Amino acid sequence: MSHIVTVQDAVTAFADWIEPTGAELAAIEAEMPVILADVDLLDAQITTLDRTPSELDDRRIRRARRRALVARVALVNRAAGTSLPGGAA
User: What are the two backbone dihedrals, phi and then psi, of residue 30, each rounded to the nearest 5 degrees?
Assistant: First the structure.
């Protein structure tokens, strides 16, 4: 018979008293437009899983893809803009 043993670090890593730092919350907030755009894209794709997509479904998926891409580009541009020292391009 083998015993199941927990590792203390793994158990306490998810304790209630450990909360995200301000930097982690800021990173999540910065990525929120990308997350929401991806959710919209997934929603558009999920609606067409059990049926043949109509022209309206195709347009909805294309618009959702564009919004997701725009959100990702905006996030990358913001990240690139903050990492350049002295405002150099």
Answer: -70, -35
